[in-house]
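Hi R.,

Here's the chain you asked about this morning:
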Amino acid sequence: MYLTVRLEHVAALEVHAAVTPNVKLKYLQNALELLRQCQSIMEVLQERDPDENKEKTKSEDGDENSIKSDYSLLNLFENRLHFILKSIIQYCRSKSNKDYETMTEMYKKLYCASLKIKKSDNVKLYASSICDVLDDIEDIMCTYQD
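And here is the predicted structure, written out as tokens:
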């Protein structure tokens, strides 16, 4: 549920970024921050027992569960992460300011790190891969903030 709400917030920020170009970068950066804050839920997904998920499935509406399965949420998370990073890179490259060059370099490294996510049919492995990438993203961002 937490991941669903986060992704809905990210979608709202993407819409705001699309319709208000003067603050587009800020909205995209906020969306990226929301995705970075999903580290804890990825750790929970990584450690969860698959049998626990089967019991939960029986008690919920089957259609809703199939639409919002863990795998599809992880896939959506990955897609949004890639899209936001590419959008930030495109925005920064369109500016000629020296500060934007440094930002472009950082976001390119973040995008390259995000490409290391390994898709897997196993939700635990997929979540683990996303956790590793979020750790890498955190390290890269700390490097540039110092």
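One quick note: Residues 2-145 form one domain.

Cheers,
M.
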